[in-house]
Design goal:
The chain has 35 residues and is mostly helical. The chain contains 2 helices and no strands. It has one domain. 77% of the residues lie in helices and 0% in strands. The protein is globular, with a radius of gyration of 9 Å. The two termini are 13 Å apart.
């Protein structure tokens, strides 16, 4: 979804160095699915 493209940079910035990209993408999908 379009919102995923906006959400990912924010998550990457917030969790930089603490989470892998694939973990963040999974988190983003769950957040978007729940909203």
């Amino acid at each position: 979804p379009a919102s995923m493209g906006r959400l990912m940079p924010t998550l990457m910035e917030r969790f930089k160095g603490r989470a892998e990209g694939r973990v963040l993408s999974q988190l983003a999908r769950e957040l978007l699915a729940g909203s």
